[in-house]
Prior knowledge:
The chain is of the alpha+beta class. The protein has helices at 6-58, 62-73, 95-99, 163-211, 229-278, 283-314, 327-344, 363-379, 438-448, 472-477, and strands at residues 80-85, 90-93, 112-113, 129-135, 138-149, 152-161, 323-326, 348-353, 358-361, 386-394, 397-404, 452-458, 462-470.
Amino acid sequence: MKRPTIRWKLTLWYAGVLAVVLTLFSGVVYFTMRHQLLGRIDQGLDEELADVLSEVDRAGDSAGMLKWLHRRFAHHEGFDFEITDAHGRRVFVNPRLVERGLSFAPASTAGSTRSSPAGSTSQDAEAPRLETRNVGSAGWRIVTVEARGPDGPLTVRVARSLASFEHEMRELLLTFLLVAPLTLLAAVGGGYVLADRALRPVQEMSRTARRITADRLHERIAVDNPHDELGTLAVTLNEMIERLERSFTEMQRFTADAAHELRTPLAVIRNEAEVALRSARSPEEYCRVLENLLEETDRLSTMADQLLFLCRQDAGLQPKANGSVPMAELLADVVSNMQLVAQDKRVVLSLQEDEPCLLTGDGRQLRRLFYNLLDNAIKYTSAGGRVSVTSRREADSLIVVVADTGIGIPVEHLPRIFDRFYRIDPARSDELDGAGLGLSICCSIVRGMGGKISVESAVGRGTKFTVRLELPEASETQPHGAGTV
């Protein structure tokens, strides 16, 4: 079964709420009008009853009473009157009531009791009793009261037909039954149109999103009002598309750079092999070719290892070690091993530590991090320069700074210095034989441990890399993986 669309859901909800509101409104109006009209009828009965009782009360004899009753109430518009004696015989009845052939029940069977009508002057009048009675096909509203007449007790009744009242109520109910469905139908149509117009931006978003493919990631969804709900959704989708475009561009650049870097050693291997096979060579020449092939193979193997490490790190497949690493010993070992490299370049390498501390992490990755940083620092520092490693504890973090007095990095290259395969002009150094992955690996290692790495540099004055790593006390309260470059 096909589920209804949001447009129809909104319309049906709107129609349902409106139907409930119309039903409640119609019911309240109907019963309020009924109550008010009945109240007016009862008020009229009270007033007429008071007039009748006043005539009965002031009459000196039966003849005078009947004379005044006939004069005032025989042809009264809207109300009918009946007075009976203690034996149930009619003393007075208006002609219209006789023509209708109505016969009222004895006073003892009358309905509800009410207070004495306003203006009643009979000393012996009891509380009036009000009832609604169906006589034939019409309803009647009747008020009955016992009064003292000139010749003994009397029962006075004032009645009014409810035919006009019931007719008005039927017309009002019929009006509601006709108007409410038409109003609901019009509201449903209007609600559908309004829902369609409200959801039109969503349709436009869908059309735009369908057009956006891998080669059209530059397109964006139009935002009419960024402050409403749909505008916020459009802005969020645009931000997502922007991230996808950036990731896709980086992936394309990474693929192109990797292909370029792999093509060079492969071309060298192919060329060396082709030259060696063109003619017979001496054993010494074959050894030289094999040495060149081995060198390029080592370069390919190193690059493949670096790429594999980065891919596993991005995918979260790199195992996380939670062992305690003594940073003082690790830094001392790394600096000691790099002393030979520094001496070959005639660069002074020094280590300055604040206090020993333990760090939770992977010792092998930390060694790789600082080996890469020191290798870069020594490589880009001229003979007679200095490279220093300093570590200090700051609050709940360990700060390790690798600084050199080398050639420095132009400021325009600093934002991309940690990008993969990104290298500054190779003419700056004769020893730039790397693939541009070292600093990317450093950045990935630091971020994987929840730390931060930053760089400061000035051309001709040197470069300083600052690594901030959280100590175990901070790791217990802060999640790993929150660091930024």
